[in-house]
Structures are given as C-alpha cells and as structure tokens.
Amino acid sequence: MVGLMFGCSEPPYQLPDRSTPEVQAEEQRLAALLPDRLLWGPGTCEVRLLGSEGSSSFAWASCEMTPTANGQPGGVSLPVRVDGTRVTEPADGAGYADSVKRMFPQRLADAVLDEPERLQP
Fold this sequence. Notes:
- By secondary structure, this protein is α+β, with helices and mostly antiparallel strands.
- It has one domain (17-119).
- The protein is built from 5 helices and 4 strands.
- β3 (75-83) and β4 (86-88) form a beta hairpin.
C-alpha cells in the first residue's frame, strides 16, 4: 500500500528558474512595488517568484521596514498575488488556508500551505 501511495504522489511544485532574465525582471519589479503595498512606511522586500498566469504574478515576499528613530522596525513574510499593481494578501488566522486557495492555482496553493519554507526567498 505504501508503494502505491508514493507511486501516485505528484512531484513537488516546480518553481520558476531564477536564472532567466524574465524571472529576474519580474522579481525586481515586485521587490520595488511591494514595500509601499505591504509595509506601513519605507522598507525593502526580498521576493521569490512562485509562478504566473496571464497578467497575475504569484510570489513570496519577505519585507522589512526601514528602522526609524521614532519606531521599532517591523516586517512581514507572506505569499502574495499581484495583478498589475494590485496586491492581494491572504487572510490572517483561521481564514488563511481558504484565502490562499482563492488567490492561487490549486497546485501552488497546496505548495504554499504544505511547504512554505521551500517557497520563501
């Protein structure tokens, strides 16, 4: 029975090749766009493109606010869907899994929920 289960399992979700100019350009575009959308002030984001479909890009963003004299630095690390300049984030808490399933194609949503550490930049 165990052999059958392994024989039927799908390979891990295939991530885009980061060495290609197209992927590099999209990761740079997202890294420039996302700090203004995800942070409450200036900062930087490191981005891993997870895929694209039509005009939508799917990525994992790890962003940090620029430290200021008035406040503590903060940050976020989360999967995002980007349609042009519109950024969609998953819900917090109990709504997280359902929102991820709405945001991403099925295989990518499964990867985000099952193996997030592999997808992070």
